[in-house]
């Protein structure tokens, strides 16, 4: 995975590209034309310094998990990611 590929995935995080509902890292990578780059999509989201302007908090792991791990990584921590998702769900 090159730096350019990560940039391509990260650029998909623009507000108009990430749906108002959640998506998975694999789906985000596939929309970038990199179907096998779910981990790179996760890394790109984890390095997003302008969240929630670029709403990577809506990108979740496909497999889920237990506790806060079910939300995946987030630059500002899984607690903040959980809060943002809950806040968006209750304000719609």
From TrEMBL:
Keyword Repeat: no
Highest taxon of source: Bacteria
Presence of the UniProt keyword Transferase in the record: yes
Entry-linked PANTHER family: METHYLATED-DNA--PROTEIN-CYSTEINE METHYLTRANSFERASE
Keywords: DNA damage, DNA repair, Methyltransferase, Transferase
Organism: Thermomonospora echinospora
Biological process, per Gene Ontology: DNA repair; methylation
PROSITE patterns listed in its UniProt record: MGMT
Gene Ontology molecular-function annotations: methylated-DNA-[protein]-cysteine S-methyltransferase activity
Domain Methylated-DNA-[protein]-cysteine S-methyltransferase DNA binding: 22-89
Descriptive protein name: O-6-methylguanine DNA methyltransferase
NCBIfam families registered for this protein in UniProt: ogt
Chemical reaction(s) catalysed: a 4-O-methyl-thymidine in DNA + L-cysteinyl-[protein] = a thymidine in DNA + S-methyl-L-cysteinyl-[protein]; a 6-O-methyl-2'-deoxyguanosine in DNA + L-cysteinyl-[protein] = S-methyl-L-cysteinyl-[protein] + a 2'-deoxyguanosine in DNA
């Amino acid at each position: 995975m090159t730096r350019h590929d990560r940039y391509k995935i990260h650029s998909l995080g623009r507000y108009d590209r990430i749906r108002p509902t959640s998506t998975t890292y694999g789906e985000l990578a596939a929309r970038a034309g990199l179907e096998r780059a779910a981990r790179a999509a996760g890394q790109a989201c984890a390095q997003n310094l302008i969240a929630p302007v670029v709403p990577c908090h809506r990108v979740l792991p496909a497999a889920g998990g237990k506790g806060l791990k079910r939300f995946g990584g987030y630059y500002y921590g899984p607690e903040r990611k959980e809060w943002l998702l809950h806040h968006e769900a209750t304000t719609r």
